[in-house]
Amino acid sequence: MLPFEEQVVADLLEDPNGGLVVVSCGLPLASLASAVLLQLFHQSPDDGCFLILSAPEPVKAQIRRRLLNSQLQVHDVAPDLPAHHRVALYASHAALFLSPRALVADLLTSRLLPSRVRALLLLSAHRSSDTSSDAFVARLLRHHHLLPVYAFSDRPHAMVSGFAKAERAMKSLYIRRLHLWPRFHLLAAADLERAPPEVVDVRVPMTHPMRGIQAAILDAMDACLKELRRTNKVDVEDLTVDKGLFKSFDEIVRRQLDPIWHTLGKKTKQLVADLRTLRKLLDYLVRYDAVTYLKYLDTLRVSEGVRSVWIFADSSHKIFDLSKRRVYQVVRADGTKVAADNKRTPTKKRKVARTSSRKGKETENEGSSDNKDNNQKVNAEMGVVVEEILEEAPKWKVLRELLQEIAEEQAKGNGDNVNPVHEDGINESGIVLVACKDERSCVQLQECISKGSHQVMRVEWEKYLLGKAELHGLHRKNKKTSQQPKGFGVLDGEVPMRSGESAGPVSISKLEANALLAAASEISTVTKEANLADDSNVSCKKRVLGKGKGTGKFKKTMAKREASMLRNRNTKEHTDLEVEGQSGKSDEQAEIDARKLPAEDDSASAPAVDKAANNLSAFGDSVDANLLPPVQFYALDSDQHVLDVWKPSVIIVYHPDITFIREIEVYKAENPSMKLKVYFLFYEDSAEVQKFESSIRRENEAFESLIRQKSLMMIPVDQNGRCIGPTLANEPEALLSQNSLTRKAGGRKPPEKEMQVIVDMREFMSSLPNVLHQKGIRIIPVTLEVGDYVLSPLICVERKSIADLFQSFASGRLYNQIETMVRYYKIPVLLIEFSQDKSFSFQSASEIGDDVSPTNIISKLSLLVLHFPRLRIVWSRSLHATADIFLSLKTNQDEPDESKAMRVGVPSEDGVVENDVRAENYNTSAIEFLRRLPGVTDSNYRRIMEECNSLAELALLPVERLSELMGTQKGARILKEFLDAKCPTML
């Protein structure tokens, strides 16, 4: 451990009641928790078990690894583990990772006594609140036994979200001391900067289209924020583009708008969604390749084109246009661009290969005839083709250069010592660790190294075209009349256009769509031919391919595509390789392609064309992939700590992340004698740099706010868990005593019984049992077959949140639940519970139509009440309102019996269900038959049941008596005629 970590642990253990530690993100949270556990265990090994809650999986793995060689055992208690196994683990004096739901149930049922717990550790204190499960566990433990509670958090910005978040979290966990350890703390800074790694900051310039897209997205975000400010519904200080780069911005806006969400218009709601979409677009611009980015934009155009506000802004056209230019553009066969102003600008052209070249029948004579035909097409029909640009990410080239540089340095350094060992015994592995944002980026960079960046872009481009063709095929299947207009269609990879045809906006988009379909059909044809050739030779090659048959098939297909493209490209002159502006590759890359043409053509004619195409170097013909250093890729989203496992000597931070950078600092401080070189790849003047710098500023501002809150914080002296908020003892006199009789012997009040509520085990995933316990109600956790809460022998409650209510109506589950409650309880209650920080409304006034819709939620509730007249619906605004409603419903009611509530709905050995009101007093089948008789309705069948004990008595009643019971002469006559009708027979 580092010296500042030891100081953190020492300060935390000073107070016997525990404390809250807030550290900068990336600092070793698992190391601090492990040190606290070990010191407490060594002080009193047999004093009880250690409970660890809210631990993420990566932190669990680190704690297990650090406690592997110690005497303290670590167990992960699954939620579905049987109760007797959990009791055995509680008695083992070990460190236990538990879920709060199972722990709360064990504490309420006394399977775990608080006196047998040594300490409670919470590793996500920023999620704690007065209604959270962590606070419920802390209250149950400290109610009779003052054990220490140690809370940790590495999200300082989350501790300042909301009003006095840190103070409220400390009160809910019964903690009186707050320990703040930012990165700029003197002790932490001294330890981390004593032996810093060698840092190289590489600023990569973005391409012109990338800069244009970024500027357009920022303009669209600024326009959306200005529109949102005009609503006067949110705090304008939080609405800045700088804060809009983070995911927490959505939480800031929704937290302010949720209470008034039902009063907002559609435009304001859409603005909030558009800001989230634009933030993703800005992030994906520097993360994904050009083809993937264009594919994502196409999905946005289809899914959000009608509703979105930003798509109709002026800057959105620039986003779509520049994203398209990074991948392809549509040109005439002579190289001139297809534009509305008919300007002819010579550009580099990659024409789609002809059918003759695909089939491998190309000769010199055929090549010359193709050139003649091509010239005739240009002069006569002005064919339109797709020009491939396939702009590669600028960071790919920089990564190539860095790996080359690292390989050269390692080759020079390994001449003296192959595996240098330092004083601390760490062996330099020479591994280069490349840290990317997600798993997809890691896979793509790995393919760039193994196959080549150009081939990776080609594969993505072909997937994009094939997806277009597949979507077009689906549209043609769904469309009955799929006849194309004259003059358009897929003809040998070209779309003919008349020389005098106007290239307006509509015709350009039409030409572009057909040109893409032409290119897609070309690729699809090549793929089919390659598959047919593979199928014909599979009998000769299956013994050689073995397990890699599928991979070899893919390689051969790719090689045939490349070979056909190269052969077709060589039939044209190489003087058209000039690139205008940013429409193509750089001059250096064009020269590399020109140098590679002869060699690739020779390799394409060789028998082993599939091997030659896939053994191309990742970075050109001058670099061999075997000469590169060993590279490991790490996805930052996985949150796995791999530095201690791989022990890299060089780290390339491809996507900068402040958490990973802090981990590098700690890793280097723990290994001061190891040589470590870190490369940071930033796009120059990009939102990536702005987001990284803003994250550092946001963290520093969060700690400054916490320091001010700590100086002004008011924590009660009796913060021990025994005096907790409002309870029944502090409430005004109950309605029971107010409504009771005043004439009593001696005026004595009978002793009040403790209120209790039977709660289903599945309901402990919500916060309502916690709030009921705060009100002083005894919670009895059992597994209920009917209902969620049993308030009395007569009252059963089925609780539904808003989301669960919609799902239950859609699946039909709610009908069955209400039917069972009506059968077994006299007062069935449906509780519809809203969230406290959201609007108390199903829908806004603008969304309510004039007509009655059967799919509307209000219509479904109305039908439910009509079908079950005894059902009572309770509307609750929040959890605390629900607790008050439960207290009111329990007034003048007996306390529920736990054993009876568990048996309700469960058949016994004889098949009899206890407390089945309908089964004991009524014949259910006869009632259903009665309700289906003609003339019997929901309004009169109960009066008929009261008068007649059976269907036989009903058949004997005269029409006059039936009319009195049914309330109508016509209904009585119809029923009597039906009952007296003769049954026809075949005899």
Automatic annotation (TrEMBL):
CDD domains on file: XPF_nuclease_XPF_euk
Location in or out of the cell: Nucleus
InterPro entries membership: ERCC4_domain, Restrct_endonuc-II-like, RuvA_2-like, XPF_nuclease
GO biological process: double-strand break repair via homologous recombination; nucleotide-excision repair involved in interstrand cross-link repair; resolution of meiotic recombination intermediates
Basic residues bias: start-end ranges: 345-358
Compositional bias segments (type: Basic and acidic residues): 359-375, 559-577, 585-599
Annotated ERCC4 domain residues: 756-836
Stretch list, region Disordered: 339-378, 476-498, 550-608
Keywords: DNA damage, DNA repair, DNA-binding, Endonuclease, Hydrolase, Nuclease, Nucleus
Pfam families: ERCC4
Main localisation: nucleus
Superkingdom as given in the UniProt entry: Eukaryota
One cellular-component annotation, GO: nucleotide-excision repair factor 1 complex
Entry GO MF terms: damaged DNA binding; single-stranded DNA binding; single-stranded DNA endodeoxyribonuclease activity
Family label: Belongs to the XPF family.
Database matches in PANTHER family: DNA REPAIR ENDONUCLEASE XPF
Entry protein name: ERCC4 domain-containing protein
